[in-house]
# Entry
Amino acid sequence: MAAAPKWSPYLDKGLVDDLNLPVSARIANLLERAIFEGRYRPGQRLREVELAEQLGVSRTPLREAFYTLETRGLLQIQPRRGAFVKSVTVEEMEELLTVRVALDGLAAGLAAENAEAADIEELKRVHEAQRAAFRKRDDPAFHALGQEFHNLIYAASGNPKLISIYRTLRIDAALYPVADILLPGEPEKSLEDHSELLAAIDAREPGKAQSIAERHIRRIKAHLKDNLPTEPDQG
# Structure
């Protein structure tokens, strides 16, 4: 499948004009979404003057947004150099996936026990949408829908603490520049795993759901180790 989309300098200024939040919070949310969508690469410098002009805001709320994103673990602010998107190394990604094996298994088992009918229907909808994205070779959509599938499983677990921990790990995963969809044969295998996992949750089989989820993350970790370079490309 094709490589992930490269960074684009264009952001949706209309989102900054939403009056429901302070300007700095709106900017922070907008930039967070852009980072998750891959518009900014790990190590990419966010140029303050250009962004302020592009978004039609002063530099003060923009700087406040940068500090907010630093606390969220998305940016690193370096004195006299500026704000940079946080980088995650292969070693850090492997450590993250080691933890995800246990947490994804736990989330899947709890989801099989606690998911409501509406949760399962939403999982089915997202899974079918991911299948459609695979058929169309729409790599960004395939990856985004795969992430949403996992997000929904955690949400269906009904455990707020687990969901909070997952969000932190998901941030680090988003900061690694090569998604699992780029690894050889992974899209087909991921779809197969998701099908089995969805069936186990729907059948209310916690043990089976946990086993499938753990196997899924272990394979991604193995593929990462076998196929990716020692350090991410800083471009």
Q: What stands out?
A: Residues 1-10 have pLDDT under 50 and may be disordered.
